[in-house]
Amino acid sequence: MQTLVVIPTTIKFFVEIFAFCFSIGFVAIIAGTGGGVLFTSFLLGFTSIHPDIVRATGLLSAVAGTRMGAQTYLRSIANIRIALFLAAPYTVFAVIGAYFGLYLTGHFGSYGVAILKLMLGLIVLFIGILYIFIKKTEYPESEGDRITQKLGLEIPYYEKSLDRVVEYKLKHAPLAFLICCGVGFISGTFGLGAGWAIGPTINLIMLAPLKVATTTSAVIISIGDTAAIVPYFISGSLIPIFAVPAVMGLMVGARIGARVAVRTKARYVRYILTLILLFAGIRLVWVGLWMMR
Q1: Half-sphere exposure for 269 (CA within 13 Å, toward CB)
Q2: How far apart are CA 200 and CA 20, in angstroms?
Q3: Which of 2, 12, 81, 94 could form a disulfide with 184 if both were Cys (CB 3.0 to 4.6 A apart)?
Q4: What does the DSSP 8-state code read for residue 2?
Q5: Which residues pair with 165 in a beta bridge?
């Protein structure tokens, strides 16, 4: 009798996690962002699931989503030179961030969890505000700069929609390098992934074409977050009964959302996403402060 009770409960939990993550993946892909931000902020803000489990699963979800297309990206549009240049700092600091996050929850107990949620809430609020003002550019104009040109990061690519090879110049490579250090640390510490930051950094700061920025960021994230998962895996934070339906839901939701996105005005979905992020950020800050009192 006990087995009969456990199995339906397990199935119910599996279905609930799958459905929740499906909706996250669906909305995130239409709004043009990664699902890690919504996944981590909501589960840490509105559930009692241990932060280590949530963050480990969030990173795994980010890797699963980007790995689906990383191989294709490498053969077509992605700039492998930018990817390797920025993946190095992102990966190193993502691993450092993962160990820092585990240290907080492991050595400071509930106080460490409170600090983690408070910090995440502030970051999510910042991301929400960022979405209000950020304006991506499909083909930004740039004359390049001396340092970036010496690094030789530009690689022309063939654009099917224009039926020609697109050549472009890049700028501010050192600044992008430093930003990836910070973003990597945030991603590893909170399990957010980095779709919200790496793409805009390559597009708006380095001034690469939007498609190059998007595809290259997917390669960088797949490399860095794979490494960041290792500390969580070693600590036993990856729980299959939770991770499997979560990753499946996000991937299926993203795949279906990508088809719907063609016929949907992403701008309105992006406004809704921004409100959701602001709400989740306020909730995390409140929970963090309440736990610290």
Answers
A1: 20
A2: 27
A3: 94
A4: H
A5: 158
234 vs 226: CA distance, rounded Å? 13
Report d(CA 116, CA 106) in Å as an integer: 12
Dist CA 212 CA 76 (whole Å):
10
With tokens 């840490």, the residue in question is 44
Q: How far is CA 126 from CA 38, 57, 129, 244, 257, in A?
A: 13, 22, 5, 30, 25
Q: Name residue 158's beta-bridge partners.
A: 165
Q: CA–CA distance from 71 to each of 220, 222, 267 (Å)?
A: 12, 10, 29
179: Cβ–Cβ under 8 A, 6 or more apart, which residues? 197, 201, 205
pLDDT of residue 1: 47
For the chain, what percent of residues have pLDDT higher than 90?
38
What DSSP element (H or E) covers 167? Answer: none
Helix/strand/coil for 54: helix
Whether the model pTM is above 0.85: yes
- Are the CB atoms for 208 and 82 separated by under 8 Å? yes
Residues 8-65 pLDDT 10s: 777 888 888 999 888 888 877 766 666 788 889 889 998 888 999 999 999 988 887 6
Strand-pairing partners, residue 164, are 159
Half-sphere exposure for 58 (CA within 13 Å, toward CB): 29
pLDDT of 247 > 50? The answer is yes
Per-residue model confidence (pLDDT) at position 122: 94
